[in-house]
Amino acid sequence: MNSDGFRFRGVSRPRSSTASPLAVHAASARGFTLIELMVVVAVIAILASLALASYRRHVLHANRNAAESVMLGIASAEERYLVDNRAYVATASSVGYAAGTLPSNYNFGITVGTTPPTYTITATAVSTSGQANDTGCTTLTVDNTGAKTPSPTTSPCWQ
């Protein structure tokens, strides 16, 4: 038995004159090292960059889907207008789509042909919006036959 009242079998420990062995161990176990903190920061940064890239891709896809939905709604309204008036109309507002209700990430246009009656609805990504980074899908069209460009079979734009 040593002077502290603890029994050690064949093990001798150097004694600190100022602190007990438990106090020395507690002092050395406090906090994290700089390397541990930097590893945690690096892991968080990697996860954040992956999450941000995924988020941006989903935002582009959601904005494109909103534009496609509006285009198909305008196409449907054009067909109803044709039944009533035997012609298509060149403005979205004439078929119930006011400028304030259209998605702001795209500029919408309608080109009308007269003989036979045809139309093409075009949605072009606004260059100052993030949608301009939607590679390959910045200009979408649908016409009176239902043909879409870029082609849904060769491009993910209409999926």
TrEMBL record:
Record-level GO BP terms: protein secretion by the type II secretion system; type IV pilus assembly
GO cellular component annotations of the record: type II protein secretion system complex
TM ranges: 32-55
Database matches in InterPro entries: Bac_GSPG_pilin (IPR000983), N_methyl_site (IPR012902), PilE-like (IPR031982), Pilin-like (IPR045584)
Gene3D superfamilies linked to this entry: Glycoprotein, Type 4 Pilin
Keyword annotations from UniProtKB, A to Z: Membrane, Methylation, Transmembrane, Transmembrane helix
Entry-linked SUPFAM superfamilies: Pili subunits
NCBIfam families recorded: IV_pilin_GFxxxE
The protein's name: Type IV pilin protein
